[in-house]
Amino acid sequence: MSAAAVPPCGLSVFLPQGLPVSTPGWHNCVVGMVHAEVEVGRDRGPRAMVRFLVDSGAAYSVLPWETWRKLGLKPKRTLDFSLADGTTIRRRLSECRFRYRGLDAASRVVLGEPGDAALLGTVTLENLGLVLNPFDRTLGPMRLTLASVPARAGYP
């Protein structure tokens, strides 16, 4: 892989060697992985900066073993997860706070085992009000919508 390049959005884009990249805004990226530097921590507790791979195919974010142990996170439940190759693994879940570019939100996280990569999943992105734009490989504000439902009599 080539060295990281930082587009205007502040995310790192890694491209296999030999693929063309157009620098102004990265609009011509064909293949790439998007990383984001995000602060994680407990309420009124320790914090750490983590470099996450933004994974639009993962529901929950994964915190590396060393990070969640350092933060003192405690498992709250255990779930089974299916990997891309069809195998099933069991992981513990907890919650922590995520801070990215002035945004702050709590999110459920998978407590990674040794060797697990740091992944930023869609639940965390949605809690932060962000979405991954697959065309220019940036994180941007989510278009938020609410259903317009008439109030029933007696309700404000």
CATH architecture of the domain at 34-141: Beta Barrel
Give the CATH class of the domain at 34-141: Mainly Beta
Average pLDDT, rounded to a whole number, is 81
Strand content: 35-45%
In oligomeric terms, what are we looking at?
single chain
What's the total number of strands? 10
The CATH homologous superfamily of the domain at 34-141 corresponds to Acid Proteases
Q: Tell me the distance between the termini.
A: 57 Å
Per the CATH scheme, the topology name of the domain at 34-141 is Cathepsin D, subunit A, domain 1
Short description:
The protein is mainly β and 156 residues long. It has 2 helices and 10 strands.
Description:
The chain is mainly beta and 156 residues long. It has a domain at 34-141: Acid Proteases (Cathepsin D, subunit A, domain 1, Beta Barrel), CATH 2.40.70.10. It is built from two helices and ten strands; from the N terminus they run ββββαββββαββ. The strands form two sheets. Strands 1, 2, 3, 4, 5, 6, 7 and 8 form an eight-stranded mixed β-sheet that branches. It has a two-stranded antiparallel ribbon with strand order 9-10. The termini are far apart.
